[in-house]
Amino acid sequence: MKRKCYKPSLLILLLLCLRLSGFAQDRKAELESNKQRLEEEISFTSKLIGETRESKNSTLGELQILNARIGKQESLIATIQKQMLQLEEQSRRSETELRRLETNLKQMKEEYARMIYFAYKNRNSYNKLVFLFAAEDFNQAYERLKYFQQYAVFRQNQITKIEETQAKIKDKLSQLEQEKNQKQLLFEDERKAQINLNTERSKKDKVVSQLSQKENQLKQSLRQKEKEAQQLQRAIEQIIAEEIRLASERKGEKVNKEDRLLELTPEELELSNSFALNRGKLPWPTERGIISARFGEQPHPVLKKVTINNNGIDIATARGSDARVVFDGVVVSTNRITNTNYAVIVRHGDYFSVYSNLEEVYVKRGDKVKTKELVGRIHTDKNESKTEVHFELWKGRMILDPDLWLAR
């Protein structure tokens, strides 16, 4: 009958445990990184809210930043709760390991006590000699001598194991104490975050109440923004249509109005593919900022039964900030939308990035730009005391959600 071999199974189990341990450490680092990022973003929103409050009256810009801040606070609380759950699981594992070590220590001490008792009973050298000389032959005497030597070594090893286990128990107790302190700190962080969240919600309710009394003014502002958005969309569509026409002419083909993608040169194709590979990793069009208005159809933050359709995202940032290009490309347009609103359009092969609400432009049509190169100064609305860039992404004639493409 063949003997079963368990070594591969044990090896697989060991590797699995190491992998799970590594995953837990990675998850812990990820949660801590997210917590720090959210705390920094919340701190940045305080600066932005401070700027919007330079206006004596409540503004829509202040409300948008408050909404973003509330979202960050909620995410922070959720992250802290995940950290606490992970720490609870880690503590349970530590307690299980501590119990195992204590059981092992007890067994080793009992075994060592039996060894000491045996050694005490056989402490007389005469007894050992009698035992050796009672051997039937030399080989048996040698084996008995070797037994005494090995027994002495085993006793010493047992002492070493006991000391090592005691040290591990001490370390595990210290680890449990650290985990207890960490849980207390996280509990306090969660409590403070919850207080801040409730405070921000109260501020939001107050601002909404004040803005609700300015319904006509808000509707007028909304109509103006919709008009500017339509102008920007027409400008983008014209630029893209022209790029498609020029690309088709180079290929000697007839332009099809339904064409959504451009004919690309090998260099443009490489650039386009590289852009596509960076989905979710593109740098933000501002050095620092928060999303104050998201992509797609959204309910108006104040006006009831009114929706806003956003072809991109709006990013609130600090006064005096610049917009920067998110990827290598070529400037294909620098359009004036209003007296204080310029838009820069950059082509990246099949893709186009749009930077709008600029009060000053640093580039011109035909310029080759590199990732994070500055393209213009972002306009500050003096009425609302807010600085905000409008950012869009297109693939051919198809509008994309920029939030899915920017790095977290």
Structure, briefly:
With 408 residues, the chain is of the alpha+beta class. It has 6 helices and 13 strands.
Low-pLDDT runs of 5+ residues are: 1-6
The DSSP helix count reads: 6
Tally the beta strands: 13
CATH class of the largest domain, please?
A: Mainly Beta
Q: What count of domains describes the coordinates?
A: 2
Strand percentage: 15-25%
Mean pLDDT: 83
Q: What can be said about the biggest beta sheet?
A: 11 strands, antiparallel
Q: How much helix is in the residues?
A: 55-70%
Ends distance: 60 Å
What is the helix/strand order? Answer: HHHHHHEEEEEEEEEEEEE
By CATH, the architecture of the largest domain is named Distorted Sandwich
CATH superfamily of the largest domain: Glucose Permease (Domain IIA)
How would you characterize the overall build of this protein?
With 408 residues, the chain is α+β, with helices and mostly antiparallel strands. The chain folds into two domains: 23-211, no CATH class; 215-404, Glucose Permease (Domain IIA). The chain has helices at 7-52, 60-121, 125-133, 138-212, 215-251, 266-277; strands at residues 290-293, 296-299, 307-310, 313-317, 322-324, 329-338, 341-348, 351-361, 368-369, 374-378, 380-381, 386-395, 398-400. The strands form two sheets. Strands 1, 4, 5, 6, 7, 8, 9, 10, 11, 12 and 13 form an eleven-stranded antiparallel beta sheet that branches. A hairpin with a 2-residue loop joins strand 6 and strand 7.
